[in-house]
Amino acid sequence: MAGDHEAVVAARREDLREISAQVRDIQGQLSKELKANRFWKSQSERELSFLGASSNHSVGPVGRGSLGLLALKENVTPGKRGLPLVELKTPRAEGKQLVLRENEADQSGGGGGNLAVVPRAERCAHEVSLLNERLANEIEAHFETHLHLETLRDNLKDSEEREKEANRRIDTLLSEMKARKTRQHHRESEFATNLTKHQDFLQDERLRRIQVERDLHKVLRQNHSLQKTLRDLTRVAKEKDTRLKSVSTELAGVKGQSGLPGEGEGAGAREETGGGGGGGQSMVSSLMDDLRRVREQLEEAEESAQVHREDAEAKEMHNVFLQEQLSLAEAQLTEKESELEAGTSAKLKELQSTSVNFMQVNEDLINELEEKEDELNKKCGEVEALEQKLMEKDGIIQLLRETVEGLKGTK
């Protein structure tokens, strides 16, 4: 659209140059015509003075005839140049025909030649001055139109510069918006990466806690089994102790009931007692061995239970430590999530405000461009009106040209 306006303005400038050249040519022709009219006026005055001087010594019809021939010579000149009086369609041509008719009437009536020729020269000079004045006015109007067109061209350039500036502002805002979106996307991706790392860490900690809990339950089951075995061994040891006590009591009772027998009876009794005592001692020794083994098993069970108890305590302490680490990691994750949510909400609000500002600026620029477009349309209308005026002035100049050509023909 701006290119079309520049082309129209350039074409109008070319037309103005051509019109100015034509006006200068017309001015030169009019100046030549004015000089020629002055020459013919002085020539007519000399002829009239000569005819007036000769008419004082001549007869009346001869003077009237000579004056009529002079007037006829003045008015028949266009016909001799190939411009018949019938083809002159301008009002000035009609005025020339009227002058011719007046001259013919003067010629037929006799006398009065001075009243027909002198006013014609004055009218020609007056018409030439009017034409010069009109041409000067037309030239001034053309220059004003040219200046107005230059002003419109400058305004059009200013509008184009403002439009370019608005486009640059839009490009700047778009680039800033793109950069902000890129930075926001980078931050969001970084936050997402950190969040994924924390989630993986928490998942690993949960798996470790589950494994520790499983180990702890296993140790607790082993401890419970060992405690059950210890209880069984304790019960067996108690039974052994009870049996040992009962056997010892029976052995003591048997020893108390036996007396001092005779030699034969005593020997038999000793043999029996010795035999009975040997059987009791073997039973006691076997019970003592069983009791010793039970005590050793109890000690081993107690040691194993102590080891398992210590292992369970260590596992429990490690589980507590893992629980604390997991709680700390969950707290950090919650804090990171809250920070991420706060940062995301802030960035979202910033993006929304930026989008609103961008939309407002875009709307303002669109309104400004619409105003500039309306202004350009208005200027286009003014240019079209000026073109119409130029066309009218071209018609006036053409009419003036025809008038000048008609005046040339009247010579």
From TrEMBL:
Keywords: Coiled coil. It comes from the Eukaryota. Residues 149-176, 284-403 form a coiled coil. Residues 254-283 are annotated as: Disordered. This is Uncharacterized protein.
